[in-house]
Amino acid sequence: MTEPDSAAAAAGPPPLPAVRAGLAHIVVPVTALWFVAFVVLLFFTDDLRAHDAMIWLWTCLAGGVLGLIGLSIYFWQRRSARRGSRSANRMALDEQL
């Protein structure tokens, strides 16, 4: 067996490709839709309880909350990368908001 080239092994993996899709442009509207669906389903809680389908209400709430958590992490990483923090993910800087 051949040994891997030490220079190639020291360089590490290749860099990740630049972000092509606007992450915030996708996640913000979808998160808003989850919250809109939650509010709409609040008007139908009696019907949801009658058909044992309350899971839809909580699924919409979970989708909205997880979307907010994801967006907060994304913007936190973006802010850290702009400040020059070494541990920040630099891919967020390539995206235009």
Descriptive account of the structure:
By secondary structure, the protein is mainly α. The chain has a domain at 21-84. The protein contains 4 helices and no strands. The chain has helices at residues 6-11, 23-42, 45-50, 55-83. It is elongated and about 65 Å long. 4% of the residues are buried. The model has no long low-confidence stretch (mean pLDDT 83).
List keywords for this structure.
63% helix, 97 residues, single chain, mainly alpha
Gyration radius over CA: 21 Å
| General shape | elongated
* Main β-sheet description: none
Average pLDDT figure: 83
Order of helices and strands: HHHH
SS-based structural class?
Answer: mainly alpha
- How many angstroms separate the termini? 49 Å
Strand content: under 5%
Low-confidence stretches: none
